[in-house]
Amino acid sequence: MPGIDTFKRVAREVRQDLAAARQRDPAAHDVGRVEILLTYGGVHALLSHRIAHALHEAGVPLLPRFLANVTKVITGVEIHPAARIGEALFIDHGAGVVIGETAEIGDDVTLYQGVTLGGTGFESGKRHPTIGDNVVVGSGAKLLGPITVGSCSKIGANSVVIHDVPANSTVVGNPGHPVRVDGKRPEGPDADWAHLPDPVADALKGMAERIGELEELVAELSGTEPPAQPAKVRPLRRGAGSDPAAG
Fold first, then answer.
1. Residues 230 and 189 both lie in one domain
2. Which domain holds residue 131?
3. Which of 63, 104, 168, 169 has the lowest CB atom count within 10 Å?
4. In terms of domains, do 10 and 81 share one?
5. What are the start-end ranges of the E strands in the chain?
6. Which residues pair with 181 in a beta bridge?
7. How far apart are CA 83 and CA 98, in angstroms?
8. Is the pLDDT of residue 188 over 60?
9. Are both 23 and 121 inside the same structural domain?
10. pTM value?
């Protein structure tokens, strides 16, 4: 059975989880820790997992899986008792989050709703992702297989990641691929998913510019007038008004 040192560790981890919720959720800045503990489903799921994981490590049969299943029914968050989770994890909203058996999560990680840290295939051994420190994973993102996500990376909402991600990267798309934000390391955790790079739009823009150049060249060689309105690729964002990621 777990000893007193195990329960002290669990209590310390829960305090860090509560502090992470207050720090990273704008709606919790003026909320006390007791209220967060009583009302945040993601915190409930983490508290339950900390206990279930301690029981699992101690070799207690049945109870860890039973506790994890009850927590899934109540919170909508499914975390296998064997998953290794570091300090100060914040699960925002929580609904639909799935963390598999061999998943490993570093310190100060933020997961939004609908995130899956899943496996591929039916082989034994390491089947789930390893997440570094200070990683932010956006809503609905799927990280599949024994991949590694480097520290300080940011996974865009609804991305599907099946390959390793270098540290200090931003990943978007399906399948996900690393890009950069203005050539700089993404600084998080934050919820600014409105200003992620769009590599598909960038590629289309490059093609449109190249087509415009070719049209001008053909017009010059044929002695005709080039098109008055060359094709342009415009971002699907408002050009005016408040910042959609400001709050």
1. no
2. 4-195
3. 63
4. yes
5. 78-79, 84-85, 90-91, 98-99, 104-105, 110-111, 116-118, 130-131, 136-137, 142-144, 148-149, 154-155, 160-161, 170-172, 177-179
6. 184
7. 11
8. no
9. yes
10. 0.74
Q: How many CB atoms lie within 10 A of CB 223?
A: 6
Residue 26, sorted as left (phi over 0), alpha (psi -120 to 50) or beta, turns out to be alpha
Q: Within this chain, do residues 158 and 242 fall inside the same structural domain, yes or no?
A: no
What is the pLDDT of the chain when averaged over all its residues? 83
Kind plus residue range of the DSSP H or E element containing 141: none
Give the pLDDT confidence of 205-224 residue by residue, as tens digits: 778 778 878 888 888 888 78
Mean pLDDT score, 180-190: 56
Q: What percent of the chain has pLDDT over 90?
A: 48
Same domain? 111 vs 204: no
Angle separating helix axes 4-24 and 41-57, nearest 10 degrees: 160
Q: Which long-range contacts (CB under 8 A, 24 or more apart) does 230-234 make?
A: 232/208, 233/201, 233/204, 233/205, 233/208
- 146 to each of 39, 98, 152, 176, how far by Cα in Å? 33, 15, 19, 15
